[in-house]
Specification:
With about 230 residues, this protein is α+β, with helices and mostly antiparallel strands. The chain has helices at about 10-15, 20-40, 45-55, 90, 100-120, 170-180; strands at about 60-65, 65-75, 75-80, 135, 145-155, 155-165, 195, 200-205, 205-210, 210-220, 225. It contains 6 helices and 11 strands.
């Protein structure tokens, strides 16, 4: 994988984020997509470098299925709507080569990097709790529009699996694969209540007399059964 020389990985804008396994995986996916983008759009190389910073610093958001990219100009944050087009001047005034401004490129890097991340195996992180552990898949820190939870039995532990995605269809496909790996728990047999006749599968009646108390039930032939 080719490193992007024009982007400073040691800058404060990136190192202020915690280097979690999810962020490392996402960053590697962004770099992989970036190499392909520069090969296809060489005229947009400088804008792609700026798009990397926007993507890795969390400025790309998916809100209600639509994308918006935050950009700072003169210290002020402006949100550009990106859905095949962009509201920035670089796009509206046709300055960007091939119509790809840094905001459209950032959205493309984010979307394709997320697709790469999702085809990998989920990262399992044990959360020390009293009754269970938690399974989390690596996701970008922006809010995902679709999520689902399930409980599975893993190595004798009841584990909660949480999946998040920007597509409900993709989310359900991923959840189906998880559930295939962990079959449902077999239902536990409930103990028979006191006074249950296991021979005839009926509930007996508790009787009281001079000799004490006993359970019994009447059979169809008129006889009595007092055996469990």
């Amino acid at each position: 994988m080719t490193m992007i020389a024009s982007y400073n990985w040691e800058s404060d804008s990136f190192t202020k984020h915690t280097a979690t396994p999810a962020r490392v995986t996402f960053r590697e996916a962004v770099l992989q997509v970036t190499d392909k983008a520069k090969a296809v759009l060489p005229a947009n190389a400088s804008r792609i470098d700026k798009a990397i910073a926007l993507t890795l610093n969390g400025h790309v958001e998916i809100v209600n299925g639509h994308a918006r990219v935050a950009s700072q100009v003169d210290g002020k944050t402006t949100y550009h709507q990106v859905n095949g087009t962009c509201t920035c001047q670089d796009f509206t005034q046709a300055k960007a080569p091939n119509g790809f401004c840094k905001h459209r490129l950032a959205h493309g890097l984010y979307r394709r990097a997320m697709e790469l991340v999702h085809v990998q195996e989920p990262v399992v992180e044990a959360q020390p709790t009293v009754t269970a552990e938690t399974v989390q898949v690596p996701v970008q820190h922006t809010e995902a529009p679709a999520s689902a939870n399930a409980y599975v039995l893993m190595n004798g532990h009841r584990v909660q699996v949480t999946l998040r995605d920007y597509s409900e269809a993709t989310l359900l496909e991923r959840m189906a694969k998880i559930l295939e790996r962990f079959p449902a728990e077999a239902p536990k047999e409930e103990p028979n209540p006191e006074g249950w006749c296991s021979k005839h599968n009926v509930q007996m009646k508790l009787n009281h007399g001079k000799r004490g108390s006993w359970w019994s039930h009447k059979l169809p032939n008129g006889q009595w059964c007092n055996k469990k």
